Amino acid sequence: TQLLEQSPQFLSIQEGENLTVYCNSSSVFSSLQWYRQEPGEGPVLLVTVVTGGEVKKLKRLTFQFGDARKDSSLHITAAQPGDTGLYLCAGAPGNQFYFGTGTSLTVIP
Amino acid sequence: DTAVSQTPKYLVTQMGNDKSIKCEQNLGHDTMYWYKQDSKKFLKIMFSYNNKELIINETVPNRFSPKSPDKAHLNLHINSLELGDSAVYFCASSQDSGQGSGGYTFGSGTRLTVV
Fold first, then answer.
1. What is the Cβ-side half-sphere exposure of residue A33, based on CA atoms within 13 angstroms?
2. Does the distance separating the beta carbons of A92 and B107 come in below 8 Å?
3. Would the pLDDT of A92 be above 70?
4. Using an 8 Å Cβ cutoff, are B107 and B7 in contact?
5. What are the chain B neighbours of A90 within 8 Å (beta carbons)?
């Protein structure tokens, strides 16, 4: 069992559909980050959430930090083929930083 | 200008060989890292360096050794390569712990294949 579990592991949807990715843990985090990794590249930071209950929006992406700061979600509205990639949540319950198990998203045109 | 650059992009080598992967960052960050991404895409930290001091060292075999000649460089040396070392290795950097709004900046990875 990993510290940060993401679900679903794989997701394949049609262009224009909405989707939600979940990142769950039994530990409390001072902050959580979301990254997107495209094939052949390194992860790129999308957002950092720091306050329980916080909601941040990045164009069609909406990120929420759970009230208890143990979980987070990423919602994508009207998915586009350019959203295809591996989505990773990440955070540090203490001094060590961990990445989640990842969600591989494919958006079909 | 690439913020975090690592070379080579691809590395194919035989078992038992010794190899190095180089990493440089031009962001002025004070901490650099090496991560290993396995076939299931799971990212696991191997090392981090802050001001030339090793501050994290996970359960990594001592065949792996990081070397930092200066704050902008963190190279990874691997001795006696084994089949199980095949993976994608990422260099990253951050300001302080990386938990703030700036997060981590990653290189584009080195795909190591041991045959």
1. 22
2. no
3. yes
4. no
5. 104
Confidence of residue A93 (pLDDT cuts 50, 70, 90): confident
For residues A109 and A16, is the Cβ–Cβ distance under 8 A? no
CA B61 to CA B20: how far, in whole Å?
Answer: 15
Predicted local distance difference test score (pLDDT) of residue B17: 98
Kindly list the distances between the CA atom of residue A66 and the CA atoms of A34, A50, A52, A63, B2, in Å, as whole numbers in the listed order: 14, 10, 5, 10, 35
Which residues does B48 contact at the CB level (< 8 Å), separation at least 6?
B31, B32, B33, B34, B54, B55, B56
CB B23 within 8 A of CB B74: yes
Which phi and psi angles does B84 have, rounded to 5°? -70, -10
* Intra-chain end-to-end CA distance of chain B, in Å: 34
Of chain B, the percentage scoring pLDDT greater than 70 comes to 97
Per residue in B2-41, pLDDT (tens digit) is 799 999 999 999 999 999 999 999 999 999 999 999 999 9
Residue in chain B closest to A38 (alpha carbons) equals B108
DSSP, collapsed to helix, strand or coil, labels residue B85 as helix
Q: A1 falls in which pLDDT band (50, 70, 90)? A: low
Q: What dihedral do alpha carbons A4, A7, A11, A15 form, nearest 10°?
A: -90
Residue A76 has pLDDT above 80, yes or no: yes
Interface residues of A toward B, Cβ cutoff 8 Å, are: 2, 30-31, 33, 35, 37, 40-45, 48, 86, 88, 90-92, 95-97, 99, 101-102, 104
